[in-house]
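Help wanted!
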Amino acid sequence: MKRTVPLVITFLTGFFLVVSFFIPHEPFGALEQRLLVWFAIVSGFTMLLGIDNLIRSHLRKIARRREGAWHSAALLAGLVVTVVVGVIGFARHGSPFHMQSPFMFVYTYSIVPLQGTMFALLAFFIASASYRAFRAKNSIATILLVSAVIVMLGRIPIGAAISHFFPAAQEWIMDIPQLAAKRGIQIGAALGAVSMSLRIILGIERSYLS
Amino acid sequence: MGVLAASGGSALAQSTPEEIGRSTEPGFADTLAQALPTACDLVAGDVPDDGGGAVRLTWKLSGGDEALGAAVTALEVFRYAPGEAPVSLGVVPQGDREFVDTDADDGIPYQYFVRSMTDLGFTDSEACDPVVASPQWFAHGRTSVLVLTVLFCAAVLVYIRRARSDEKLYIRKIPGLEAVDDAVGRATEMGRPVLYVPGIETVSEVGTLAALTILGHVAKRVAAHGTPLLVPCADPIVMTTAQEIVKQAYAEAGQSDRYDPSRIAYLTYDQFGYTAGVDGIMVRERPEAVFLMGYFAAESLILAETGHQIGAIQISGTKETSQLPFFVAACDYTLIGEELFAASSYLSREPVMLGSLKAQDLAKLWIMIFVSAAFVVGSVGLLLAPDGTSPLSRAFEAARTWFGG
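Answered by r_m:
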């Protein structure tokens, strides 16, 4: 029973969603949108579960004085401060997202720069990963290296200044072999997704219900 | 021709807008109406393959008297039902030639006209024939999808049936999945944890669902070896599901007492906040095996490179083609697209699950044959008649249209 009910719900939901894709008439037509609204409401409540888990796990780390517990303290302090400034912003300006709200100050001058810092790391990681990927240790890696050089040169002004070959060659590489490989992967992934969906709808794939 | 706002005057082409506005000459209104650009050939029709309540309008724009030099600045669409006054549905930019009325009631015969607004006034198009919005019971534009879906589902069911009858099915080896046991074993030998990252999306994303099915298999192996398993989550629903999956895996391995729900933790929904959190776990906990499965975006390389720097064996999998090169460059093994969805079946080795993999391969074979045939037919057709009038070209076009191309 513990498994049968979820399996029946999964089957009915999946079946009617597939049907609604082909039948635009009511009551099927708007079914997907309606279910998305339900999902949004449920996921909104599950955010409370996430916050509960977050607070509990970090309080546990602080209580047990584990190594790096001060990280947990900083996280909880940040959580409390963000909630407090949000409430202040709501009380003073009617919305925490008002531009004069202290919440927006915290968002603009701490969260956005921190996000930007993490994103900027990508530039360094691309350099190190490219170095390893482009090492011409075999014929396949050499083809990758040559293709990458042509594409990079073809996409910057200096490439066209050196030779018109680079823009034309990069366009060919991106439009023909690159796109063909990408579409092949996408077709395979789409079939895989349909196949997995079918396994789930039919109750063959149950590991997510463990 | 409908209403005209400007009035009076003669010798239009020689008149200034101010002079036209002041003129009171009889019959001028009709003369000016003919000289101003106006919407014409207005066609209205029910939007096909919809749930009703929508009418699509298309029109052209006549050039008007070029000497007058009046340009259309905007177009306003009006609608009226029998016995009702026209109501404005909205103003569209002068370049638009299409409008969809999404506020129509089904079954009412509406008529529409389009008002062309210029600096000198406006002209109205002739009203279109009455049109009725109605819902459809079948989306004809998706016939090809339905046929292909039925064929594919039939193939899956046939292979599942064959698998159930104990028929041996050959499945090619997937190195990334063969390495799962090695990665967990290595982590156990080194006495370090296994880190499983289920992507940054929620369970409505099919990639996340695939990641959670793989988590079940990884958790069973981890539980059997007694290795700590860390699962940082970016979504509370994913966290709750992951906790249940891991708990069940530990129970099946007879290690329920070793299950620690605090290791399957929610970090944050923020993309880079989550990335920073997972990177921090990698650097502090030094996992020996890192699994990156599911939906990833810009953070894919940041995570994979951090894993590489701590020397962990990394197995990744995603269907996002834009992130695959990063994983291939930074990880030891990568499950590419379909392999991610095949992983659960592959790892379970259940015949019924493997049957669906064979159906996938069969579908790919059909697609390859069809694409090759279409390539040959289309190319030969163009060689026979470069203007595309040969039967082969027409067959190619018919197939392309059927597939919605």
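OP: Thanks! One thing I noticed: The two ends of chain B are 39 Å apart (CA to CA).
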